[in-house]
Amino acid sequence: GAGVSQSPSNKVTEKGKDVELRCDPISGHTALYWYRQRLGQGLEFLIYFQGNSAPDKSGLPSDRFSAERTGESVSTLTIQRTQQEDSAVYLCASRLSGGAQETQYFGPGTRLLVL
Amino acid sequence: DQQVKQNSPSLSVQEGRISILNCDYTNSMFDYFLWYKKYPAEGPTFLISISSIKDKNEDGRFTVFLNKSAKHLSLHIVPSQPGDSAVYFCAASGDTGTASKLTFGTGTRLQVTL
Fold first, then answer.
1. Chain B residue nearest residue A43, CA to CA
2. What confidence tens digit (pLDDT) does each residue in A47-105 have?
3. How far is the C-alpha of A96 from the C-alpha of A27, rounded, in Å?
4. What is the nearest CA distance from A100 to chain B, expressed in angstroms?
5. What is the pLDDT of residue B41?
6. Does B96 contact A at CB distance below 8 Å?
7. pLDDT score at A41
8. Residue from A79, A23, A31 nearest A55 by CA
9. Chain B environment of A93 (Cβ under 8 Å)
10. Rounded to whole angstroms, how far apart are CA atoms A3 and A108?
11. CB of A98 within 8 A of CB of A33?
12. Residues B92-105: pLDDT tens digits?
């Protein structure tokens, strides 16, 4: 497809389980971001990938969160030992390159509910 | 610490009138500002942006104004249409470090009534 896609669209899990969220960026986009939006809050930056550079992980809230990206394609965000506070919409965005003034295109998000 | 603030969680405007959405920021390193629009169950969609070297940017019915001294920006939609009903997020980025990461406000839900 032409846009950013994410899967699954919804995920319900039990506290303590691990979850893996997937993002397929727009083809050719070298930069990829993960954000999350908790209820009633704005989007929080989590992690940023730019080409083959080391990712910027400064927004990850704890060491239970990790993300990988293979080349300039798919990225996965993994949350280990999920907690109820991890419940949120996790959004992925991509952009053509890392230029600060380029548009980020967002996927529809994965709604995660931790029971 | 909320660096980008949208103090009005909701706004209701009649069709055909002007919608004004406001945003304040605290980080003086921000130099690029964006507005995103979000419909339910969809990701945010880019609407309009402005660089700190400008004080106004216009695109059709949408105009963004930037007041750097007040650290304030606003989005004007005129005339408002029912299809404009959505949540609008203000976002900002700086030109250093993870320059391209966006810092978002909490959003304003706009309802355009007939």
1. B104
2. 999 888 889 999 999 999 999 998 788 999 999 999 999 999 999 999 887 565 678 89
3. 9
4. 4
5. 84
6. no
7. 85
8. A31
9. 43
10. 10
11. no
12. 988 554 557 889 99
